[in-house]
């Protein structure tokens, strides 16, 4: 397995992405100088607290996918008509394109019970991955999964039950994650409110994190989730995107590639809830496709995550035996310690983003 | 009543905000030159199709407000625990601060069945008000109302009914607006699918607009909506914000001012569903506060909106009799025609934003 410890930048261009702490201050400064030359308006040090103004070529938002649904239980209120057509299954996409976009487009796909907010300003107010990647030359696309956040759900079945036209059992399986049970899932500690030693998640700002959590309809949606065909449309539009998933959405990029490989340059699955199953799934969609499965710290101490890590190890081995280019990395293996399941919000989040930039430069170089 | 037709910029600085079509090309060019000098990275022409790179000093997102709720019906799924604590009532806020922020912070508050997407890229792919105002020197804050979009709702009552622990009647009054009944509410025409003559809404891209619509929980929330105290907190944090509402949220800035005037520099109510009621509401919170109530076109042809316009006219007159500085403007009165209820997305949306910038310069000048 490839390890960040032994990597050396093959070109000057790939160096900024490799300035993890383990690589030392000298390399970080060299990388900073290269990046300062290459990327207009962006800082080069991963965790620069005052990065200065950001110049972007273009920003905006749009929807991908979607399906019209006609219903006569859209409302139970006298002021709003019950019958009409709505659109569901589309995904909301917000993007920023840097002036010097020398790197490929990234699609950031959040996990369970969360929205695209996952990748924005951290709970303790530091720069999110969304801005970091733009500052480092990646066109960056942040989505809300279908039926989540700014991507519409339908209240039709709720109103059918409220109006007495359907059984309560038919209500959607929409749930929220309480912070006490979620604590161990996010691996802040073994159980609420215990904390793993040297934890990098900014627990002093946990209140702001809990506010990010929203109701999750995914258990009431078909498999694959409607987000998957929408991601496929988006990747084709971007002509070569790196799909970066997290947790619940871990399987989505793999399902997207199984649907259609075109437009997908690489897959980065951050702490996926599941990898494809070599015993059931066709592995040919992953032949020659750069794939990174990335986990944080304390995984072996987690009854929830240790089996998922093991399952993904099995997938990576099987995919490579079938001609794949898959890697599985635990951050402690490359000298980065203390990371929770929410590693894109941990105190060293930008060091990880910086390391990930280097992985993309090496495994999926170029722009779209 | 003050009319844009007779306005002249009192300082050079206020000129860019006044380049509405009625003011002519010469003024637009003069305004462009001034703005180019004053605002780094931003275009000055309202509807420039290729505005060039945008330089911002800072961007990010955060939450304001919020309340912890303990529940034992957060989930009916075996994989997720039913009991725990979640946070609701907070509002999601996304902001961008221009490098030369010589104008006051704006808070953009969307209306019924929509989210902050309202103010972003228009359905036909043009620049949204969110970016226009940043390019013109306003720190700009876009929110999702409480229980909408990226601001969490609670599924607890849905799951209580699904689990047989509560009556179907107790389900929340959450609704979606079907496009056919919404057509006349948005004043695209008198009824679906008829279109008012010279309509400025980009109906060729209406599919993208319908995808913006999400379920609306407001009828199941207390009055005032939890968005209101959160707006108050936000305004105080911004030390002098202009609160810009739309439609359903029209009453929120007035309720916010009634709660606490500090932090509120001005109110702009775009096509409000309601203005304060002089027969019931205390008007003293509005004394000396710059207030603009702004309506588009075809209002008299709308049985839904004509009475609301009349009600707001009554409020403006009463507020001014009580020492207020309120104005009500119909866009046709200042030479801007063809606007729907979604005037921030109409084809002339940036001309209206430009005119609004001028109103703010005149009535609520300075920065925070």
TrEMBL record, chains A, B:
<dbReference type="InterPro" id="IPR029058">
    <property type="entry name" value="AB_hydrolase_fold"/>
</dbReference>
<protein>
    <submittedName>
        <fullName>Esterase</fullName>
    </submittedName>
</protein>
<dbReference type="InterPro" id="IPR050228">
    <property type="entry name" value="Carboxylesterase_BioH"/>
</dbReference>
<feature type="signal peptide">
    <location>
        <begin position="1"/>
        <end position="46"/>
    </location>
</feature>
<keyword id="KW-0732">Signal</keyword>
């Amino acid at each position: 397995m490839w390890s960040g410890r032994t990597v050396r930048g093959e070109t000057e261009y790939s160096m900024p992405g490799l300035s993890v702490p383990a690589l030392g201050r000298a390399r970080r400064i060299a990388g900073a100088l290269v990046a300062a030359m290459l990327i207009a308006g962006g800082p080069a040090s991963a965790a620069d607290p005052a990065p200065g103004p950001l110049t972007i070529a273009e920003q905006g938002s749009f929807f991908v996918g979607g399906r019209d649904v006609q219903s006569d239980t859209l409302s139970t209120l006298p002021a709003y008509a019950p019958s009409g057509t709505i659109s569901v299954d589309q995904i909301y996409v917000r993007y920023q394109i840097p002036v010097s976009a020398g790197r490929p487009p990234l699609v950031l796909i959040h996990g369970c019970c969360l929205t695209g907010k996952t990748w924005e300003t951290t709970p303790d107010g530091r720069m999110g991955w969304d801005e970091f990647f733009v500052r480092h030359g990646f066109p960056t696309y942040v989505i809300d999964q279908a039926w989540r956040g700014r991507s519409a759900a339908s209240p039709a079945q709720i109103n059918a039950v409220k109006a007495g036209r359907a059984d309560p059992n038919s209500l959607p399986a929409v749930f929220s994650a309480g912070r006490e049970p979620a604590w161990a899932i996010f691996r802040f500690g073994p159980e609420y409110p215990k904390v793993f030693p040297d934890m990098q998640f900014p627990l002093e700002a946990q209140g702001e994190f809990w506010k990010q959590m929203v109701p999750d309809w995914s258990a009431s949606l078909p498999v694959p989730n409607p987000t998957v065909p929408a991601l496929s449309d988006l990747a084709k539009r971007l002509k070569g995107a790196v799909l970066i998933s997290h947790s619940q959405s871990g399987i989505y990029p793999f399902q997207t590639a199984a649907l259609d490989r075109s437009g997908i340059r690489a897959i980065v699955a951050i702490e996926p809830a599941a990898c494809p199953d070599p015993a059931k799934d066709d592995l040919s969609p992953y032949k020659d496709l750069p794939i990174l499965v990335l986990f944080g710290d304390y995984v072996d101490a987690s009854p929830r995550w240790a089996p998922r890590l093991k399952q993904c190890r099995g997938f990576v081995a099987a995919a490579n035996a079938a001609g794949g280019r898959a890697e599985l990395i635990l951050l402690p293996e490359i000298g980065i310690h203390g990371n929770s399941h929410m590693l894109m919000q941990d105190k060293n989040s930008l060091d990880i983003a910086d390391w990930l930039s280097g992985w993309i430069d090496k495994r999926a170089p170029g722009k779209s």
